[in-house]
Amino acid sequence: MDKKLLTIVVPCYNEQEALPLFYQAIIEMEKNGELAPVDLEFVFVDDGSRDNTLEVFRGLSAQDSRIHYVSFSRNFGKEAGIYAGLEKSTGDYVVIMDADLQDPPAMLPEMLSYIGTGEYDCVATRRVDRKGEPPIRSWFARKFYRLMNKISNADIVDGARDYQMMTRKVVDAILAMKEYNRFSKGIFGWVGFRRKWLEFENVERVAGETKWSFWKLFIYAIDGIVAFSTAPLIMASIFGLIMCLVAFIFIIVIIVRTMIFGDPTNGWPSMVCIILLVSGIQLLCMGILGEYLAKTYLETKNRPIYLVQEEK
Ligand code: UDP
Ligand code: MG
């Protein structure tokens, strides 16, 4: 029997309502024979939930021995959850899915059919619309992806979800990236391999609420840029260079003017403006530098990506 094993990895943070629905949806599909080409294994990750997610895990895993779970000592973020889930997975194929059914399980058979041919190492998905999302958020998101692709060499696709099915080879590649600042869209894009993209329309979550505020997303975007591009550092140098050039031209102009017209003392207001501008740019560049330094600092501490409270 060479039936392949598919591990379904589900990072969960306060998903006590959504998770049972999610599990039911998968079991339903299995009963209908839609997942016939594979055996299933579940890895649920409780990312320090404050509700009863862990009890839900315990309950489900008592009924179904194919369910394994990890519970973190606190909230470490979805990225850490994905990492822990991948580490615990044993399947030939692994798929990462959200607990809120925003990643339609109905796509699984198609993903399996692509990955089963052996032609692809990874079947990834992207949302083609951002229905049900505030318009400014969509606007910022689109700008972010455009910028990101210009300044980094990881292939980061607009609307790409973490919902993707991968072979063991890709899972191992991702696990080999042990960095602490895990920007998963960047990591998936960075590892490469043969990827097939599937598209779907946005689905709203079945229960509970999103964990992303606009501010959280903004910080996440900055983290992504710092993790996968050094362009802001180059920008700082270019800024500096331009400033030097301008200053040099000014010096010459002022020397020549003084020699021709003498030295009437005026121009203080403009001086103040220049000082403010230049010191502003300096602080900005220092901030950029500091951002990279801070990330380096965190990486060198070599802290674990997550800590386990309980697992099965
Ligand atoms: N999640 C997590 N840790 C967090 C935040 C979210 O494990 O700190 C999980 C969450 O339970 C869900 C998935 O990541 O399964 C996606 O989260 P959410 O639905 O809030 O994000 P959105 O779909 O709105 O992008
Ligand atoms: Mg969601």
TrEMBL record:
A single GO cellular-component term on record: plasma membrane
Claim: Disulfide bond is one of the keywords in the record: no
Residue ranges crossing the lipid bilayer per the database entry: 212-231, 238-262, 268-294
Pfam families: Glycos_transf_2 (PF00535)
Listed GO MF terms: transferase activity
Domain Glycosyltransferase 2-like, chain residue ranges per copy: 7-174
Superkingdom of this protein's organism: Bacteria
Alphabetized UniProt keyword annotations: Membrane, Transferase, Transmembrane, Transmembrane helix
Protein name: Glycosyltransferase involved in cell wall bisynthesis
